[in-house]
Amino acid sequence: MAPVGNSASGELHMKSVFVRPLLLLTTLTWLLPFPPAMAQETPAEEKITPRFAAFAIETDLQRELIGRPEPNIYLAIDAAPIVEAGWAKPDYVLSVDVQQRLREIIHDYSIEDPEVTLWVSGPHIADIRAMTQQMKQIFADSTFKPKLKLNSTYFTSDHSLFNGTPSPFLAPDADAKPVDRQLAGQGFEAFVVTSDLARQKSSGADIYITLHQPITRDFEKFSPEMVARLKAAVDELDPAHRQVITIKCETTLHGQQVMYDFTSRPSTNNGNFFAPQPLSKAELLAEELGFKNCRFGIHGLRFSPEDLMQRKAPNFQLSNQEGEMVDFHEITKGKVTLLNFSGIACPPCQKEAPHLTALQKEFADQGVKVISVNGYNELLEEIQANMKRLSLEHETLVMGRGVANGQYKVYAYPLTFFLDENGIIRDFHLDFKQGDEAVLKEKIAKLLKEKED
Which pLDDT does position 42 carry in this prediction? Predict the structure, then answer.
């Protein structure tokens, strides 16, 4: 709020009542030496204390919820006071209080190279690109030591980040139970949500589940085996409360409607508005797992690998790592085949690659063929060097972007198709996470068993 003497009503009052004394006073002060106490001062702009939240990023769950693996500091600021002006103020974004909190985090977590992910909460921002550039400039110009690197900037209208009073900052307790403990299951990862940052970003979930494979149009409900595995994981993690379980999943293009139906209560249309509504399948799942509520975080993919299911795999010709031109149908004839699309620049592809060689070695005597197609169009020399570095021995085909994008509609890597001995695509697997090597092996074993039967 500005000083009262600068208000419009104050000026009008002075002009209407004290016109002549004001003129006389002005004359005298011009003729006489100016008293130091009467020197005019420019009113200082009122400082606005920012609402903010800052945390060290230390757990896999926190990185999962933030969506980036690189940052080690999370900073959220309430930008409502600066958004209306259309520009960001350095002394607001990196205020004295914000810098003090950052110093605490850097010191207590021994962070040498602080890298910040910034979440800006506020009303509608007309020019997000301009505001993003301003944030980058503020961090670039900051004299904060050690130098802060701004990794990413996100804009949100969520004000729940600042509800209540932040608890005092506490350094990590070396003897305490690890926060956000995780458990890798078959086809999923489970986390018990205990850290302040994770609870904030998960909207208060007690257990957080990430499913490895996308929901397709054939999905109806989780199998009894999957429900049993999820329940066993929850029991082992032993959360303090069982109010909310959140399940994050991807859906194929066709699977989006399926998940909408799964999370919606069925319509009864019986005309009785007071009758209890049947529970949704998601609510029934929550009950099975021992929770009061089950939330789903859904990320929709823009393609549907299931469109190729039960069809003959499209043929193509590409060169392999030895520079030899090969025909896909020829080298896979009569064999159960794992057809993998990947690239060197894809981190999960690199994690998966050694397991593909292991599968080729394990099942070679049973008529299994493992093939990787490089969909990144990386150079042959790079592929050969990478195969040597990772000790890869399964066949790799190069310059396969056209095949990946055209015939197989690959929009995410790694993507693996499983073909029976007749060349029919029977299954697929998207991405690669911890424990997925067992899933790949299981899919191959299933096709081999069908071949024997």
Answer: 40
